[in-house]
Each structure stands twice: as structure tokens, then as C-alpha cells.
Amino acid sequence: MIKLAQSRWGIVAVGCVCYLVVLALSLRGPVAAALARRAAAVAAPTPITGPSWDFHNPELEALVRELQGEKNEIARRRQQLEEWAARLQAERQELNTVTQAVHQMQVELDRNVVQIKANEKDNLKRLAKVYAGMTPESAVKILLEKDDEGAVKILASMKESEIAPILEAMTKDAGGVKRAANISERLRLTLAQATPNKRTPTP
Asked: How far apart are CA 77 and CA 52, in angstroms?
């Protein structure tokens, strides 16, 4: 052992051992401090600094996308409601137009149709018999002195076979063709309204 310590290689070995021991003792403090700092950094995250638009939060971005999707859906439904409202408004206007047209047609029909009151029927029947007993030419002369409504009331109380010769004789008078056509149309409407529609029995 003494010989090893006195030899050149023994002295080198002892020197290396001493160097390593001193190096380990000198590095022990800084290494421990570095490890402690790293553990503290992991345990407590570093606060974020800098402008907010540089931050990226996946949960916040997902929430923003969800809100944007709901906003787009609301806008789409609002557009649908506006289209339906416009369509309903157009249909309402069309319905009003049709209703007014029907009302106008009803007014026109009521004006063209001669209404015969119940208390007039007996007098008109007697007067119709008088006209039926006259020649068509004589009856036309009297009817031409009446207005269309009065002429229609009398003719409506006569039989069809009695009306035809009178209208035919009316066409022979000057300007009588147009009036005969007008009286015939009003007479048709009056008779159609007075006679209820008869349904054909189903076999």
C-alpha cells in the first residue's frame, strides 16, 4: 500500500479521486437549485403576458364557433319567416281582390235580376194574361213604353210560348234588337234565380 502511494501512478489516482470529490461537492448546490426552479416552474405556470389577441384558447374558440353557428341559424329562420310573411301578404291581397270581384259580380247580378215582390205577383199575373191575349205587335208597343225592369216583370209572369212571339215582334222595331237582347238576358237571370236548381236523382 505504501509502495502504491509512493509510486507515480498511485499519486495520479489519488489526485483524480480528490478532484472528483471536490467537483461533486462544488456542483451539488447549483444543481439542486436548478432542479428546484424547474419543479417550481412546472407546479406554477408562468403568467401570460402580452396583447390579448395573441392568446389562443381552444375552449374559447369552440364557444365562439358555436355562437356563430347559432347566429347563422337564427338569421336563416328570420329570413324564412320574412318570406312566409311576404307570401301571406300577397295571398291576402289576392283573396281581397277575388272577394271584391265576387262582390262586384253579385252587385251586377242583383242589378240585372228583376226582383218581384210577393204582393206584385197577383197583379203581374193578371197583367200578363192581358198581354198574352193581345197580338205580339200590340204588346210590344206597350212594353216599349216601359223600362226594362217593368217589361221583365211582366214577361216573367208569362209562359215561354207567350214570350217568344213578343220578343220576336220587338226585334222588328227600330232599335228593338238591342233592347230585346237586353230584356232577354235579364229575363233569363230572373227566371234562373226564381227557379231552384233541380238535382238529378242518383240511380
From this structure: 34
